[in-house]
C-alpha cells in the first residue's frame, strides 16, 4: 500500500495548487456544487488509496454493534468500497465498562471533541446523542477540521441540520446520517439518490417503533394505552419517561430530515404540527377496524397548494395498505413521486445492529464516493419552505362524539356539519353500556357516534365540533383522527 | 463553465502520466479496486465539471419517459449530482414515428452501435432489449470505448453480466442496471450500497407483475388461471406469448442479478430452478387461504449448507407477511441479513415512468460518483457459487393429492410420509363434488387432501409422492407448493 500512498501524495503535490485556484476563483460565485467538486475530487483521489481511519464517539448499543460489525465485515466492506477502513480511535464516558467488544489497539479519548479534531482520523462517527453539548461541539469540530462525519443523531440534525450541512459543504466533506431516520431502512439514500429524478409529492411513515408497538398491542388485544405503554417499558421498547416517543417528538425529528430530502427545503422542525397517541382509546381502534382502517402514528410531509405541510399525528390508514401491515416496533416509509409512483420501505427502526448497518453504509459511502450535499441539494439552493398551516389541512376525518342519546341530537350534529360544508361518507353508532341498561333509550346517556367525512378542511371540522359542543349535544371532547389514503 | 473545463483539462495534463504510472504498476498485482481507483478518480475529477452527454438507444415506452423526465428534471438532477447532464443523441428503429416527445436538437443515429461508439457522448443508455444482437454489441462497444453504460436489460446481464462487468472494470466506467430488476424499486442500490455492511442470508421477491396480477385475480375472484391470463393480455399486462412471464423465466433473469449482488457470486442464471404458475388451481388458492397463506410466484436466493440456492416457483407465504400484501402488478423484495435483519421494498415493477426513474438514478450516479464494481464486488473477487441442488432444498411443503376415497387410503399416505421421515403439520380434507353426490362415501371418487409438512427435503417429498402414486392411491399428479416463512 505504501507506494500507492506515496504516488497519491506526489500526485497531490501537483494537484493542490490547481485545486486551490479553481476553488478560490469560485469562492465568490454562487456555484457551490461545481466549485466544491474540483477540490473535493482532488482530496478524494488522494484519499481513495489510503485506509479510512474512523474515530468513534459513543459506545452504547449502536457503538458496540458498529465495532463488532466492522471487525467482522471491515475487510469485505473495504474491498467493495475500493478503500480499506478501520476504527482507530474511540471515545466514551466510562473507559472501564465492559461492553463485550475488543477495543485493544484503539486509541482512547476521554473527550469526544478532542477525538473529533484529532489529526489521526479521517472520519468521525458521532453516536453520543443530544442536540447540544458534546455531540454538537464534536460534530462541528470534526467538520471544521475537514473530517467526514457520520451520525445517527436526529435531534442534532433536526435542530442544526442547515448549519451543519453548510459547514460540511464549505469543508468539502461528507455529513452522512442514514441512521438518523428509520434506523436500518435506507430511506436517506433512497430519497437523495434513488429518487434523484423524481418530484416528490408526499411522504409518510411509521417512524417510531414505541408508538407502533403500543398501537399494535392495543388493536390486537383490545388493551388500554396505559397497559400497553407499561408493557413497552417493561420490554425496553419505551423509556422511563416516554413523553418524547409517545407525544410524537421523536417522529417529528425524523420527519424534519425526510422533508428536506424530499422537497429540498431547509430543515424546519418548528413547522411541524405534532400530536401523540396518548389520547387513542381501544374504542377508536375497534371503530377503525369496523370501518376498514387501522390507526398508526404517521409523520406526513406533503406538497400542498398552500406550501409544504409537515404533520405528526395518529392517522387512519386503509387496512389493506402496505403501511397498515406494519406491526410492532417495525418502521415503514411510503413515498409518492411523479416518476416512480408509490414506493414503500419496511424495516427495523431501531436496534444496535440495524442502526449500525445504516452507519456502516454511510461509512462505505464516505470511503468510496466524493461528498454530496447532505440533504441532496446544494445548501445554497435549499430554501425555507412556505409552511402550510394545519387549519388549512384538507382531507378526510374520523370524528368520534359522545352524544347524549336524546331526540334531536342527531339532527343537531348533522346541521352543524352541513353548515360547515362537511359531507359525511359514513356514520357509525354503537350502543354504550349505559344505554344498553336502559331499554327505553331515553336516559340520555351518552352514546359513541363516529362520523367519517369526505375531504374537508381542519378548520371546518374544528368549527363544526365547537358548535356541536356549544349546543350541549356531546358529553366529552370529540376525538378527531385524520385519514390518510393511498 | 468554460474556465472550469480548461482548468479541468490543464489539471489532467499533469495528472494523466501519474494516473497511468499508478495504473500500470498495479496491472500485474491482483488489486482491481485499488488500481482502478486512482485512474478512475482522475477521469472523474476531469469530468465532474463538464456536462454529461447522454446517448440513448431505444425509444419505446421507457425511452420516451426518460426523454420527457430529463427535459423536466434535468437541471435539478444536475444540480444535485454536481454535474450538468443532457441527452445529446438518440437511436431507434423508426425515425419518423411520433412518440409524443421533442427530439429536436438531438443527433440521430440509425445504428445503436455507432451511437455507443460515438466520441460525442459520455454515457450510453441501452433500452433496446434482447440478450444478443444490437443491444449486446452496442453495450460492448460503449464500454470498450470508455463510455459509461446504463441499461434496463435484464436478459443481457443475466446472460453476459460477468463479462460485461469485467469490461466495465477494465475500462474504469460505470455499468449501471437499477432498472433491470424490479423496475422502480431501488433494489440494486440497496443491495450494493445500503447493505454494504451486511452479510445477506436470504433474498426473495415478487419480481414479475404479470404473474402477481394473475394470482391476485385468481385469489380475489376464484377465477381460473386461463381466465385471468386472458384479462392480463387484454389489459396489456401480459404479452401475446406469455410463456416468458408465466413460466418464471423473467423472474429468473432478475433473480440471477440480485443473487450476485447479495452474495458476491458470478451471475449464474443456469443454476436457477424455475417453475411457473400455470399449474396453480383456484382450489390451491382457496386451500392456502384456509391454512393462513397466500400463493405468490417468488424468486428466492438463499445461502444454504450445500451452497447458494436459486429458485423461482409458486410459493406459500404467511398471509400476514408484508410480501403477502403485495397485489396486482406491484413488485416487492425482502432481504434477510445479519445486521439489518429483515428489509422489504415494495414498488412498481414496470411502467415507462417508474422504469425511467431507475434509469435516471443510475445516470445521476454516473454523473456524480466514480465507477464502482457493477455487482458490488470487484470482478476478480466474484466466484462461481456452489450450486445447491433443488433435491436438497429443505423447507415446509404444501402437498395436494386427489385421493381415491377408499378405506385404507389415508393410512397408506400416512405410512409413505412416515417412511420418508416427513412429519405433517396439518392435514386438510375437502369433500369433492363427486363425493358429495355419494352419501355412502364409498364410491371411491377422488377427494382433495392437503398435507402441510414440517421442514423436510424436496427429495423426500418427491419420493413419498412417487410411492403413494405407485400404490394407486391418487387419481392425478400431486400438486406440490413450497412454503417460505419469514
TrEMBL record, chains A, B:
One of its GO terms (molecular function) is homoserine dehydrogenase activity. Residues 398-482 form the ACT domain. GO terms for biological process: methionine biosynthetic process; threonine biosynthetic process. The keyword Repeat does not apply. It comes from the Bacteria. Coiled coil: none annotated. Pfam families: Homoserine_dh, NAD_binding_3. InterPro entries: ACT-like_dom_sf, ACT_dom, Asp/hSer_DH_NAD-bd, HDH_cat, HDH_CS, NAD(P)-bd_dom_sf. Pathway: Amino-acid biosynthesis; L-threonine biosynthesis; L-threonine from L-aspartate: step 3/5; Amino-acid biosynthesis; L-methionine biosynthesis via de novo pathway; L-homoserine from L-aspartate: step 3/3. Keywords: Amino-acid biosynthesis, Methionine biosynthesis, NADP, Oxidoreductase, Threonine biosynthesis. Its EC number is 1.1.1.3. Gene3D superfamilies: 3.30.70.260, Dihydrodipicolinate Reductase, domain 2, NAD(P)-binding Rossmann-like Domain. Belongs to the homoserine dehydrogenase family. This is Homoserine dehydrogenase. It comes from Saliniramus fredricksonii. The lineage of its organism: Bacteria, Pseudomonadati, Pseudomonadota, Alphaproteobacteria, Hyphomicrobiales.
Amino acid at each position: 500500500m505504501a507506494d500507492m500512498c506515496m504516488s497519491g501524495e506526489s500526485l497531490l503535490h501537483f494537484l493542490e495548487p490547481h485545486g486551490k485556484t479553481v476553488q478560490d476563483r469560485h469562492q465568490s460565485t454562487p456555484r457551490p456544487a461545481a466549485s466544491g467538486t474540483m477540490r473535493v475530487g482532488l482530496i478524494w483521489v488522494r484519499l481513495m488509496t489510503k485506509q479510512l481511519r474512523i474515530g468513534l464517539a459513543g459506545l452504547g448499543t449502536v457503538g458496540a454493534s458498529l465495532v463488532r460489525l466492522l471487525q467482522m465485515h471491515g475487510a469485505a466492506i473495504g474491498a467493495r468500497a475500493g478503500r480499506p477502513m478501520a476504527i482507530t480511535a474511540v471515545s466514551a464516558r466510562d473507559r472501564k465498562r465492559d461492553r463485550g467488544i475488543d477495543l485493544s489497539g484503539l486509541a482512547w479519548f476521554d473527550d469526544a471533541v478532542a477525538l473529533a479534531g484529532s489529526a489521526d482520523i479521517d472520519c468521525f462517527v458521532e453516536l453520543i446523542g443530544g442536540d447540544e453539548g458534546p455531540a454538537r461541539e464534536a460534530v462541528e469540530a470534526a467538520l471544521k477540521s475537514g473530517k467526514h462525519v457520520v451520525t445517527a443523531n436526529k435531534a442534532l440534525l433536526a435542530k442544526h441540520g442547515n448549519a451543519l450541512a453548510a459547514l460540511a459543504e464549505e469543508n468539502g466533506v461528507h455529513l452522512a446520517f442514514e441512521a438518523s431516520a428509520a434506523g436500518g431502512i435506507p430511506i436517506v439514500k433512497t430519497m437523495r439518490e434513488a429518487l434523484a429524478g423524481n418530484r416528490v409529492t408526499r411522504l409518510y411513515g411509521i417512524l417510531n417503533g414505541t408508538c407502533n408497538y403500543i398501537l399494535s398491542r392495543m388493536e390486537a388485544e383490545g388493551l388500554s394505552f396505559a397497559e400497553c405503554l407499561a408493557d413497552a417499558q417493561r420490554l425496553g421498547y419505551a423509556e422511563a419517561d416516554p413523553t418524547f416517543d409517545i407525544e410524537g417528538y421523536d417522529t417529528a425529528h425524523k420527519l424534519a430530515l425526510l422533508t428536506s430530502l424530499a422537497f429540498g427545503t431547509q430543515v424546519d422542525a418548528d413547522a411541524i404540527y405534532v400530536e401523540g397517541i396518548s389520547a387513542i382509546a381501544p374504542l377508536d381502534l375497534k371503530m377503525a377496524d369496523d370501518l376498514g382502517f387501522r390507526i398508526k402514528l404517521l409523520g406526513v410531509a406533503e406538497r400542498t397548494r398552500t406550501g409544504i405541510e409537515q404533520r405528526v399525528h395518529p392517522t387512519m390508514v386503509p387496512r389493506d395498505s402496505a403501511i397498515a401491515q406494519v406491526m410492532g416496533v417495525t418502521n415503514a416509509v411510503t413515498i409518492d413521486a411523479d416518476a416512480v409512483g408509490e414506493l414503500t420501505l419496511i424495516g427495523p427502526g431501531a436496534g444496535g445492529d440495524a442502526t449500525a448497518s445504516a452507519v456502516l453504509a454511510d461509512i462505505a459511502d464516505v470511503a468510496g464516493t466524493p461528498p454530496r450535499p447532505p440533504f441532496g441539494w446544494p445548501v445554497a439552493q435549499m430554501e425555507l419552505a412556505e409552511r402550510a398551516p394545519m387549519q388549512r389541512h384538507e382531507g378526510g376525518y374520523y370524528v368520534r362524539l359522545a352524544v347524549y342519546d336524546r331526540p334531536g341530537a342527531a339532527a343537531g350534529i348533522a346541521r352543524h356539519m352541513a353548515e360547515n360544508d362537511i359531507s359525511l361518507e359514513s356514520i357509525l353508532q354503537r350502543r354504550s353500556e349505559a344505554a344498553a341498561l336502559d331499554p327505553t333509550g331515553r336516559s340520555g346517556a351518552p352514546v359513541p357516534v363516529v362520523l367519517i367525512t369526505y375531504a374537508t378542511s381542519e378548520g371546518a371540522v374544528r368549527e363544526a365540533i365547537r358548535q356541536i359542543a356549544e349546543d350541549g349535544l356531546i358529553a366529552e371532547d370529540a376525538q378527531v383522527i385524520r385519514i390518510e389514503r393511498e
